[in-house]
Sequence to fold (281 residues):
Amino acid sequence: MGADATPATGSLREYVLDRCMVEELRQTMPALENPLAILRDKHTKQPEFERALSDTGFMLGIRLAQELPLVVKRIETPLETTEVRTVDGSRVLLVAVLRSGYGLCTGIQRAIPDARIGLIDIKRKELADGTVIPELHYNGLENVNPDDFDLVVFPDPMLATGGSGEMAGNELEKMSFARYKFKFMSAIAAPEGVVKLSEAYPHMGIITAALDERLDENSYIRPGLGDCGDRANEGFQPDYPNYFNKVYVKYATNDQNQVRFKKTVPMPDDVEIPAIYRRTA
Fold:
């Protein structure tokens, strides 16, 4: 989709919905309108914002589950033995683009509990001429085996310029992940970012809760929801990976020992971190 393919009439948003592999989920899932409204409202406090981000991720996870296999198992009800079906997400890797991507991932994980989370930290960097580019700060996926996964999902609350999503995909391709396994999910997206990501990965499906109207001159999504990372984390920016005592690992799980990004002080050196969070090399 080169420059000569841009629409002559109508909005870029309409063009993207018509021509790109993007699905605006709120069109078929009206329940998304509630958490989206909370996320957009500038008066929303941090706890409510974080909850709405997780709820949005949960509904994205419900949509993702439609593409996953079901497994049958036998359980005991209070009255008898019966067969039930559950969604098998054991071969799904959720690549959390820090900071705010983690909150969306844990929401998806509520719908697909056995999906695993990997961490990558990409920040926006503004150059002297005003150009905004992505910059890789941390890749916590060094020990991940690509053969363990059939689907790699990049959940990022905001698909703005598409630079972070493209960089995350490039990093995984360097690690021998096949691009046909990639899928991108977001809470909101700008048409410009959808176009860029579609050009970089033509066969990657993009699912967003809402497709907004445009990027402004500062590369912010309009109408958007502001800086999602700041609003979800109250402006706190840990130093990855030192923040996790240099032992935070490839997977986070949804058990009681899950490390939280919400801590406002570094972990003491004498804290024993569960084995599931440790690097294997």
Summary: The chain has seven helices and twelve strands. The chain has one domain: 15-72+83-233.
